[in-house]
Here is the input.
Amino acid sequence: MQASDVKKVSVLGAGLMGSGIAQVCSQAGISVIMRDIKDEFLEKGMKGIKDGLGKVVSKGKMTQEDANEIIGRIETTTDLAKAASEADLIIEAIPEDMKLKKEVYKEVSQNASENTIIASNTSTLSINDMAASVKNPQNFLGLHFFNPAPVMKLLEVVKGKKTSDDVVQFGRDFATRVGKTPVVCIDSPGFIANRVALPIMIEAVTALEEGVASKEDIDTAMELGYNHPMGPLKLADLVGIDTVLHSIKSVGDKIKSPKWKAPKLLEEMVKEGKLGRKTGRGFYEYPPK
Here is the structure.
């Protein structure tokens, strides 16, 4: 199947990433089924999409008519069999729990057609391990979008051991179709972006712990010295301190290197509920939304 042949995409998960991916696909003119386990999750996901598009409209970057068309192309359901059977491409964006993902993939495989391409949006888990749960592992790959999906231009296309070359090319072409820039890598802990970015975050937090410099100066050093658009501590707050900690541990468990040890400060912040922007406090404080 060619990326241009995709008429309908099913996105499994209506959280921040799932709803963002659904919006990206719909903005590219593709019909979308967004599936989650409860209607309340779907309603929250759709509200996030509507609110996000509303801000774009208010800035004059999109008409309300275009926003309505994007919203109109997104259907919601709690029926996994329906979502799997009606899609040309299935993108899984559920929590980073391998057992849960494998359970979902088994049901998806029972209902999807032989030619359906299945992708995971995972940022840290093994594509090879997940592919073992589907009937046609040659049609399975990673499509790792970045948060927020409607804004971030990068899409990591991850090739598993059994992913066919045609499906990797499909991933590249699909990324371009939905307005993203693809990079391709093999299934490896952290893929490309997290493999490089997380050690920078670890060192930034460690420098803060050791009193090397203030959080502001650490971030400014990376922003102005290395032209990073956002310092590593600000970025950790944006991603979520709990998510950063989980990612460090997940990748570190596979790489087995001392440099991947999570700083104690991150552990303490998670215990205290200082999770970054989503809780109003992280390395910085944020006004309530």
In short: The chain has two domains: 3-186, 194-279. Residues 3-186 form a domain with the Rossmann fold fold (CATH 3.40.50.720). The CA atoms of residues 102 and 130 lie 6 Å apart. The beta strands are 8-12, 31-35, 74-77, 89-92, 117-120, 140-145, 154-159, 181-186.
